[in-house]
């Protein structure tokens, strides 16, 4: 356990309760967990059913999701368990909200994850009015983060916005720049929206999240294990973030090679 625990709340990004329990045993704490249907589908319980030749229909998949988050729920602290709605490009806000209402009743510490799309933000507005805690996922721009702030005004509970660091890195950008810029944008706000650094791929991502003072970070178990093996360091005051592949990015810029940007409303 670290001599000084980070101010940033640490969430496990995964769908296996046993993995969460193991991380908690190693760290001495787990503040919360983020889940999604894809992570749940990779859990050992679901994989065993698939291996036996059983294909889960929509209701069975939802039942497995509920069972798994109910096992995770008592393992985590005050950051709760984020449960993601099943959403496609054409899923309406009404359909998302109906799922969110049901999922919110699964466990006492649920946060409902909605995609940062037009329909997802409409579901956020309605959820906030009903007192449903929300985590807005798949955030790729400051404009989206500003929209989350506007859609969730008046929330009685902290609202999470999840900028996807690794996904932006995959596009040839520095995903941590977005996290930093959102934090700066929110400095003069009422602070009802908390930044949850997501799609973390490396220990450097995690340490820079600490250095930026983000409220939360959701982290794969492998990165948390790496952190413990290095005695759970915290960034020094003079910490400098060095993104992976930054040399390649600089060369690309010098060659004036364009980077493809993700759309402002990328969905599942």
Strand-helix topology:
Elements: E1 9-13, H1 17-27, E2 32-34, H2 37-41, H3 44-51, H4 58-72, E3 80-84, H5 93-104, E4 110-115, H6 118-129, E5 134-139, H7 142-151, E6 159-163, H8 165-170, H9 175-185, E7 193-197, H10 203-212, E8 216-219, H11 221-229, H12 246-254
Parallel strand pairs: 1-2, 1-8, 2-3, 3-4, 4-5, 5-6, 6-7, 7-8
Helix pairs in contact: 1-11, 5-6, 9-10
Shape type: globular
Mean pLDDT: 89
**Chain oligomer state:** single chain
- Work out the radius of gyration: 18 Å
Largest sheet: 8 strands, parallel, barrel
Spans of 5+ residues with little confidence (pLDDT < 50)? Answer: 247-268
Count up the helices: 12
The helix/strand order is EHEHHHEHEHEHEHHEHEHH
CATH architecture: Alpha-Beta Barrel
How much beta, percentage-wise? 5-15%
Considering the protein shown, what is the CATH homologous superfamily?
Aldolase class I
Here the CATH topology equals TIM Barrel
How would you describe this protein?
- It is a single chain.
- The protein is α/β, with parallel strands linked by helices.
- The protein has one domain: Aldolase class I (TIM Barrel, Alpha-Beta Barrel).
- 44% of the residues lie in helices and 15% in strands.
- The protein has helices spanning 17-27, 37-41, 44-51, 58-72, 93-104, 118-129, 142-151, 165-170, 175-185, 203-212, 221-229, 246-254; strands at residues 9-13, 32-34, 80-84, 110-115, 134-139, 159-163, 193-197, 216-219.
- Strands 1-2-3-4-5-6-7-8 form an 8-stranded parallel β-barrel, surrounded by 5 helices.
Briefly, what is this?
The chain is an alpha/beta fold and 268 residues long.
């Amino acid at each position: 356990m670290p001599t000084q625990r980070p101010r940033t709340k640490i969430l496990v990004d995964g769908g296996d309760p046993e993995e969460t329990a193991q991380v908690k045993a190693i760290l001495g704490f787990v503040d919360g967990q983020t889940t999604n249907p894809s992570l749940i589908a990779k859990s050992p319980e679901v994989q065993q059913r698939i291996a036996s030749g059983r294909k889960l229909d929509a209701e069975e998949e939802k039942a497995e999701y509920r069972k798994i988050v109910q096992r995770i729920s008592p393992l985590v602290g005050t950051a709760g368990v984020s449960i993601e709605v099943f959403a496609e490009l054409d899923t309406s806000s009404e359909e998302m909200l109906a799922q969110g209402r049901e999922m919110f009743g699964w466990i006492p510490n649920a946060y409902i994850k909605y995609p940062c799309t037009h329909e997802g933000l409409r579901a956020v507005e309605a959820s906030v009015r009903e007192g449903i805690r929300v985590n807005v996922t798949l955030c790729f721009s400051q404009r989206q983060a500003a929209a989350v702030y506007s859609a969730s005004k008046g929330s009685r509970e902290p609202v999470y916005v999840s900028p996807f660091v690794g996904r932006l890195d995959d596009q040839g950008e520095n995903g941590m720049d977005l996290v930093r810029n959102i934090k700066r944008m929110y400095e003069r706000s009422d602070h009802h929206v908390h930044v949850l650094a997501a799609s973390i791929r490396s220990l450097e991502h995690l340490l820079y999240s600490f250095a930026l003072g983000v409220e939360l970070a959701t982290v794969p178990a492998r990165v948390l294990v790496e952190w413990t093996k290095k005695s759970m360091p915290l960034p020094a005051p003079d910490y400098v973030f060095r993104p992976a592949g930054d040399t390649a990015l600089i060369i690309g810029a010098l060659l004036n090679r364009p980077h493809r940007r993700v759309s402002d409303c990328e969905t599942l």
